[in-house]
Specification:
The protein is an alpha+beta fold and 552 residues long. The chain has a domain of 226 residues. The strands form four sheets. It has a seven-stranded antiparallel β-sheet with strand order 1-18-17-13-12-9-8. α3 packs antiparallel against α4. The termini are far apart.
Amino acid sequence: MRLALGMVLGASLFASEPVRARKAMVVAQEEHAADVGVAVLKRGGNAVDAAVAVAFALAVTHPAAGNIGGGGFLLLRKANGETAFIDFRERAPAKATRDMYLDAQGKPTQDSTVGWRAAGVPGTVRGLELAHKKYGRARWSSLVAPAVKLAQRGFVLNYSTARSIAGAKVLAQFPESNRIFLRNGKPYEAGEIFRQPELAKTLKSVQKRGAKGLYEGQNARILAEEMAKHGGLITLEDLKNYQAIERQPLRASYKGLDLLLAPPPSSGGVLLAQMLGILEDTGYEKTGAGSAQAFHWIAEAMKRAYADRAEYLGDPDFVKVPVAGLTNRFYINRLRASIDPGKAVPSSLIRNGPPPPNEPSETTHLSVVDAEGTAVALTYTINGSYGNGVAVPRLGFLLNNEMDDFSVKPGAPNMFGAVGGTANAIAPRKTPLSSMSPLIATRDGKLLMVLGAPGGTRIPNGVLQAFLNVVDFKMNMQQAIDAPRIHHQWLPDRLQVTHGVSPDTIELLKRRGHTVAPISGVALVEGIAVRDGWLEGGSDTASRQRGRAVGY
């Protein structure tokens, strides 16, 4: 009875209704940007056009993660079944070296997270341009225009955004960031208008010249000059040579659903494919959402997938990543068989591999579905909240600290506590391993769901649980996002639980041998589901930043 009571209490915390629309929908982490996307759709733009416009708008209105100084992934499925995946992840500068963030004693320094040397070569603008050229139809200038207007004229700061910026201590460490975002020690308050004229000027150049407005010409020279002046590594050649890459989406299945996922250099798709494969035939869901037994199975699946992440995953252009082997059903069966249904297996005892041979057998996310049924899941990032803290003088945008996503030292944790190996070691022009996990699900060729999230190494687990909540526990999209979540990433060997997991459930998890600790949140999921002819939009509200789902 105590367990049942705990589940009822948990369920009461996620009884929210989603936003519903008949034709089209945009879900994003910031309300101004979401409105920009819907306006594009109403003018006849498609899902890619809307995603591009939202991404540029977020670079203005959601500076903690929206960006032109970072990178990410775009996953696309057209209504006719055509798919695409665009990799515009940041890359290591040509001058990068394997041990560049180790001190004389071989210990990691903070240079991979704070300051100019932490930045990888940004890819966002190149990636958005590639997506638009291949799959968009609206005029490029019209998609960048709303962001220019928001930066130039400003927008009214809501409480959550004002509070987030004021609390970003990393911004105070750099004069330009301190001036733009913190007004030299007098932070903006809710209700004030926040203008960014330098960023507006940079965006105008991108509006007029496309990606060349940032990667070539005057703006590129300014960025390279400031890099050299402050000890950064990105050069004019790095900027000019950066190209976004179109890759094949990773495909998986779960209980009759077909899934499109992110391939390496993201770890997210492989992790999701593995975790869903492990869970599929367990009957884990029979004890109900939020039950100790369901959480136990999910946590044990997480541990095994993240152990493989640390050992095998990296940039496929530099190392052989055994994707087919890691997602092979015989290997998945072996992982599932290693789980004790009643007891946690210590992470120190989990050594999964090797898989079969690789042969055939403060990030943000936005989801878009247009009136034609085309779906886009776009996740992009500057890594930590407000990136490396540096706003580029004269250009007005924040740089990423994505170099920390490499294994700075194999076996040493990064800022998210993730442990990596030599497959993800630093090398010139190499892409750091990502956790971004855009997902598109279909059933019998018809769109079912579009999901994604920010949140570092917590992203795959947040997306996993929202997906399972819709598919296995029959929740609507907002309920699926609001439900309490758990997180385990193999090392450290700790099962973290969000607010709303009942005390009874926590006690039962401890009895199974889990070391349980609280966590403020497990990713910030943004999603759209299709149900009974309606689009259901859900946005995560478990943070300072208010997300928004809007459609028509």
